[in-house]
Backbone:
C-alpha cells in the first residue's frame, strides 16, 4: 500500500471512528455474542470458537464493552 502504519491508522480512524485494533475487538465481541446465544456451548467454548481465551484479557474487554459479564449476557439473551 506504500503508506506507513501511522498514516494507515489515522486514515482508518478518520473513516470508521475507531482504530484498527478497536475495530478488531468490536468484531470479535460481536462473534462472541453470537456464540454465547448457543446454549450447547460452554462460555469457554464460545470464546475459543472465536479465537479468544475466556480466562484471559478478552473476558475483561467483553465486560467493559457490553457492561456485563459473558454469563450475564447469556442469561439475558436466553430470557428473550
Residues:
Amino acid at each position: 500500500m506504500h503508506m506507513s502504519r501511522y498514516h494507515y491508522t489515522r486514515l482508518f480512524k478518520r473513516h470508521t471512528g475507531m482504530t484498527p485494533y478497536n475495530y478488531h475487538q468490536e468484531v470479535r465481541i460481536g462473534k462472541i455474542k453470537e456464540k454465547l446465544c448457543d446454549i450447547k456451548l460452554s462460555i469457554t467454548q464460545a470464546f475459543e470458537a472465536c479465537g479468544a481465551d475466556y480466562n484471559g484479557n478478552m473476558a475483561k474487554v467483553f465486560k467493559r464493552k457490553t457492561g456485563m459479564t459473558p454469563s450475564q449476557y447469556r442469561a439475558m439473551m436466553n430470557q428473550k
Remarks:
- The helical segments are 5-16, 20-36, 43-49, 57-66, 70-79.
- The chain has one domain: 5-79.
- The two ends are 46 Å apart (CA to CA).
- The CA atoms of residues 8 and 63 lie 29 Å apart.
